[in-house]
Fold Carboxypeptidase.
Amino acid sequence: TIHDPGYNPDPHWNVPMRINLYCGAPADTQNGQEAWGYVAVRNDASMFWWLYYANSPTHSYSELPLVMWLQGGPGASGTGYGNFEEIGPLDKNLNRRKYSWVEAASLLFVDNPVGTGYSYTTNANAFAKDLNMVVSDMMILLKEFFLKKPEFQNIPFYIFSESYGGKMAAGIALALVQAVQRNEIHCRFAGVSLGDSWISPLDSVLSWGPYLYSMSLLDDRGLEEVNSYADQVQKAIEAGNYKQATDLWGATEFAILRNTDGVNFYNIMTKEPADAVVEMAVPMKNHYLVNLYSNHVRRLQKTSLDVLMNGPIRDKLKIIPSFVRWGGQSNAVFNNMEEDFMKPVIDIVDKLLAANVNVSVFNGQLDLIVDTVGQEAWVKKLKWPGLSSFLSGHWKPLYIPSKPDEAAAFFKQQNNFSFYWVIKAGHMVPSDQGEMALKMLRMITRQE
């Protein structure tokens, strides 16, 4: 829903600040502090952020890192899904999360690109069209955030991401390095973490058929069909037809749904509901955006989460403009990024490594949309000098207290690059393996 572009919100909506306890949320939450607000990143575009101060029984927030979490989509909300479904202090029923990341870090959720979650634009032409625009908006937000919250300027700052959020995180991280060097943003940037991230779309798409075939989810005929569509995606990308590549990406997905009885792209051990498979497998006039949005953004705006965010949470925050509905512009966010969607950012990861930025990759074993095979493929394309040593090194098993005799993940590191293979996890690693994800957070942020 786009509000009338002629409407000008009250000035106090631009950068309101609130700091308090958990605002009397149902259930006995921790005694942590929060802050939230808007930043007007352009005349007709405002981005919403929500900060939870770290709440550790043994350390002050000033002794722990600050982590910004970026959700995928594009158009999925970090303040909603990442917060209440994955890593925040409370789950969507407002009960305390057992393995919340606030135990080990302060958490900054940002709804980006503009139009995601509670972020909004009052102009239909103001949605981000590409990564450069996403990055530019985020630089404005981060500059404002660290000016308004100077207590975080000297705390190690990490960017963690998931899915398409990883593509955005890579671009944002590189721009942040440069902004810090120019003294434009005051922070201690310490690293970026790419979780099941859409870094090289083509490598992911080309791996789908062989991966599903190896897992007995495609037969020879199905493999041939899926690979045929993937080949078309490759030809479109090589020709520079990225918009067509996005449509063909969708066609490849639907070929998979037809041949696998509706495998879940976010965890291959589960499947899509039957009605969803029928709905998604009949694309409208060969244009797949409507169904792709349904499969990859709307599913992260579950009815229960929508009710929470547009009800009790909206009432608690008190600053959401009356014309803004959480998730109301997410479809437009997704559609406007269509042409940029299939472009790779492997070169940006290379630039981060060359700039000595700590880069970590983590991936769920059971993910399909960004399967581990595809991730490993783009890693092998890096021009980073440490690549050969990384590939020839031995990985190490990682264990968690609840299962001390069973590896929960495998880990490998070379210089400023590390990779975590997370066992029994799908696309949303913290949701599927919360204990291991929290351990990984502590390792990446050098707490263990």
The two ends are 46 Å apart (CA to CA). The longest helix spans residues 220-238.
